[in-house]
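Typical record was shown:
=====
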Amino acid sequence: MRVMTYNIHKGIGGRDRLYRLERVIDAIRTQRPDIVCLQEVDRHVKRSRFDDQPTLLAETLEFEHIAYQFNHRVGEGRGPGTGPAGYGNLVLSREPITQRHNLSLRIRGRKNRRAQLVVIETQSGPVRLINWHLGLSEKERHSQVAKLLETDRFRRYAGMPTLLAGDCNDWRNTLHRGALARNELAQITAPPSRFRSFPAYMPVGSLDKAFCCNRVVVERAHIVKSRLTSRASDHLPLVIDFKLS
């Protein structure tokens, strides 16, 4: 099974600053993932032509199962019934999503952050998947990890094969220690020198990371660096091939 995690930067290129969601769509399509974890997905925002990106991505890429998490408000949408405009996290899956939870990672005095927890019923059995976008300070990130791992909704699925993936903003590569290690969540994206994903046009930071536990066997993990992905966003996508033991 193949998982991709990708901060799409609202479909805006990292260097040319042009809104071209079709580049993101092509970057995803070329990798043929079964599950996609996306961050910074716009809905009804002026800068992205008021597009409903979650719907556009799901329909264009032909994903039947979708879970969108609205995180940050950016004004009002255009047209009747569009509601608030903003961006958030998105999970697309070819297999059924049987459970979905929106978990707050908010730390007082910091920008609101959230994580998605979904259970996906794969052909090999259920998988607990967390799609997240962590904060900018190291102390904040470690607090957010601890907050996630302590929630009842995370613990409810203890023992289930688990993947955590997303934009961790972990410049110093310290997240694999502390609470994640105590909960036996192993870092997939190590050593960091092999997983540099930001900025896309000249990556120096390993910001997009993944962790796993409980019978998840990683067969291959790599950053997708190409002419297309170097232009489509300010991050490069991370792809993980795994199976359940």
Q: What stands out?
A: The domain at 2-244 is CATH 3.60.10.10 (Deoxyribonuclease I; Chain A).
